[in-house]
Amino acid sequence: MTRLFLGVDGGQSSTTALIGDSGGRVLGCGRGGPCNHIAGEEGRTKFVRTIRDCLQAACAEAGLDMNTARFASACLGFSGGPEDKDAIVREMLTADRMTVTYDAPIALAGATAGGPGVIVIAGTGSIAFGRNAAGRTARAGGWGHIYGDEGGAFDIARRALRAALRFEEGWGPPTALHRMLLAETCAASANGLLHRLYTTEFSRPRIAALAVLVDRAAEEEDAVARSILETAATELVGLAAAVRRQLFPDGELVRLAHVGGVFRSEILRNWFCATADVTGGMRAGPPVYGPAAGALLEAYRAEGLLTDLVDLPEEEK
After folding, report:
1. Looking at the chain, which terminus has fewer C-beta neighbours within 10 angstroms, N or C?
2. What would the mean pLDDT of 98-112 be, rounded to a whole number?
3. Mean pLDDT within 187-201
4. Beta-carbon-side half-sphere exposure of residue 43 (alpha carbons within 13 Å)
5. Domains along the chain?
């Protein structure tokens, strides 16, 4: 009888489930909506529905009955951490071995195709995570938008607003960010916008979304905007370097992968890669696979299997 393996990436925007056989062939894929919040009865209901829908779709594609499917190993990684989700998924799945973890380990496993290395994840926030050949792990960052998340989109947007305020008050250099932020938010002044940002009108994701204006201004040769992106990239490299020092000896070249929305900025991405190369000991580049593939690889690894993935959906490559 074919042994089955399951990998699930549960994120803030979408959820993906992959089912594979013992040879690394992907048999089924299922996709659904976000599943990072389960507070309250409504949140728990949405979480269960999302996981069930993803599993149902993956099982159907693999020719399996979700209600009777048994997995030799399953790994599920969730944005926001596993603590409030662990017990729920164990009630929903039948697996001989199950790992419920957060998003960074599966993102790293996908990015390095299961090998050692370091990953920097920078979306709304930021975190660096790494694992060496001995299996030892370390992290840096990921402390939230108030005390951390350096180089993430919220941090970039916050720096942009500061620059706009300084220009408006006459103690900062001219920048197109002032005009662009006011136009984007229909605000009369940077000072007025600041007061609105402290209200429920602007959620953290909505503020973080303003980071795209910084990239746009930098592409138009705005020096302040470019400096903000370069500073963000440098701090993200700093997170990676902190993880590298904890796990790898001097002189060893370490693979460094980057994922997340802020790396859509060519200026930030190029500065990140160049700074990583100059820092020494790290070679930066895009991920090999996506996080759902990483979760499936982690399911294999838990059983002592190292395998290449076959018939992986294009979106996970």
Report:
1. N
2. 92
3. 89
4. 9
5. 4-112+289-316 (3.30.420.40), 114-287 (3.30.420.40)
Instruction: Give the C-alpha distances (Å, rounded to integers) separating 155 from 160, 162, 226, 228.
Output: 9, 11, 14, 10
Query: Which residue in this structure is represented by tokens 């009888």?
Result: 1
Q: What percent of the chain has pLDDT over 90?
A: 63
Q: By the 8 A CB rule, do 271 and 230 touch? A: yes
Query: Quick one: average pLDDT of 64-86?
Result: 87
Tell me the pLDDT tens digit for each residue of 128-158: 999 999 999 999 998 888 887 899 999 999 9
What pTM value is reported for the model? 0.86
Opening angle at CA 52, ends 51 and 56, nearest 5: 120
Please list, in sequence order, all residues whose beta carbon lies within 8 angstroms of the beta carbon of residue 278, skipping any fewer than 6 positions away.
none
What is the rounded CA–CA span in Å between residue 48 and residue 10? 12
Express each pLDDT in 233-286 by its tens digit: 999 999 999 999 999 998 899 999 999 899 999 999 999 999 998 887 899 989
Asked if residue 36 has pLDDT above 70, the reply is no
